[in-house]
């Protein structure tokens, strides 16, 4: 049965072109396509995986037409297969007897080389696709860390059945979880380093707060859980028969390996020794990751202590960002008090004309125009004389007078009227009846003071320069009329009020 050739996605194709499996510049995808043929079509085609079969299938459906790949010859394919078998170990070759059908109709038996994909080749096919999708699949999460810790504890407690493949499966799951956790922690390590660098320059208060919360509430506890497994990993490494038990469990009662089915003692022994060495090697690498000595940290690819150093550095940078934001924050309450104090004396403030500061570009031969304080010498300011014509204004230039000018507030007269109408004492004011004013300023100040009945902070309600201590409405809410002579309208207050001054 001939299967349709699988198309290669562009990201995977770019990666394969970069790696050039098979080491042939004219056929950079040949190694990958040969593995695909052996993996998908070898067992199902009904034909032996000979060199002729592979060349025929490759030239039929697997040529890279986009890059105008030419058909591959038997000699070139043979060299690529040598690389895959002897150097990469992804393909296995064996001499077997096969039947060949001649053009005359006769069938002959011939000994030829047959190719089959190895377990490493199968893993390579899967792994390369995971490499392409790593940006989506590599992630750090606490549930995966919890799962890894649970599997380690299960292996230490010897809860897995060694008579079946359960112990081997648990060990394999633990290694997979360990790899996922370490890849996720490394990604977190890189992301934190980049983000902390950005925060060090941008001082993002909100982002820094969220990130610091995540680190303190999730990342640090997760790291502590990982660190808590160090003693258990060391314990597994010290168990003398653990690797042997895992290797025997791989060939347990539910194993589907053909060597076990046919009783191939040599194959079973070779597989046992490989697995035992693999378990010992993996435990040694894990133990190295959890060892705090400088030599172990230098020789470990996934040292947990290097990962935690990045977390500590990120927390330090976040603390500095928080401190920067706190120092830059304006005390609104203090600023409001200063503004209120300024408003009490705004009519007596004097703003002086600033003295003109000459720019450094107005001077000739300045050593450092950016810093005049450090200049050893400074020439005088130079100006270009310009003729200036002074315009003489006459009465004709005056603006037109309007019919009615805006009334000017006589503050002294307004203050006198204010005292006469509403003051009951030096520091007490009562408004409990309709009032008739002669000055607008007195009427307007009284209306503004009434709005203070809705507040408990009176620094902004200074009346004629006097600070207000308290303002409150009268108990009987009777509307009052305030009228100024000469105006056609009146101001009505909802109720009377009284006030006390400092």
Automatic annotation (TrEMBL):
<protein>
    <submittedName>
        <fullName>Uncharacterized protein</fullName>
    </submittedName>
</protein>
